[in-house]
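Request: Show me your protein:
***
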Amino acid sequence: MRALLPFVLLLGAGFPAEAAWAQDDVHPNTELQTGTRFAREPETAGAAEARWMQKRVAMCVFNRNRDEVRAILANSNFYSIDFDAVDHEPDTIFDDLEVSFCMGRLMRGADNETYRLYMNVPFSTLRNLLAEEAYLQDFDNAPAIGADSTQDVAGRFAGERVHPQVSTMAALADCLTFSGGAQAHELLVSRPGSDSELAAVDALGPILAACASSGEAELTVATSLLRQIAADGMWSRSHYALASVTGSGQ
């Protein structure tokens, strides 16, 4: 479901709204192709600050609603939430998760002359931000890839058929975390917009390019999207294959 609900984006007037909530699609092919070059998409200081602010909102939402968030994550994928399987409705989920409360708390500590831009966000963006927080809550270190580990995360869809776009993105996230789990972990523990995030993106980018097999000579992906792919992959790998990972903080 790609419905949009009100959300705040925490940035000064005049900033292009679409930049901070980029949902650029990556369409990887099924065959691995070598030679694709990864290019990190330029990001303004304002966009980086906005992503740090949205992460703080997600941290607040997760910490106030841990059980509900985990139930949502277990009944969702990169793009959509199965509302028939969770105790929430599309029209009320933002209220149920106290998103407005978390935004208000954040805004009370902000310069309201600067942070005053409101906009819309897909369910998928909030879902993937929460996947990052749930993963970081459970793991202090990257899950280890054991000898019996497989690239594709078993149990993701429990044998159910899903839209090709969903399975394609899942395969991309699984490949990324299988081949670059340590790099993906470093990305997720870094502060958005920090030098450590930039270093993690540069380290993870070539792995993403190899996994994507885009057929293009150069693959350019927004940092926000790369972070969401890593979050989905790391949370899914840890959630569905917990018995074969180490580093649990639980």
In short: Residues 39 and 220 are 5 Å apart (CA to CA). The chain has nine helices and four strands. The mean pLDDT is 78.
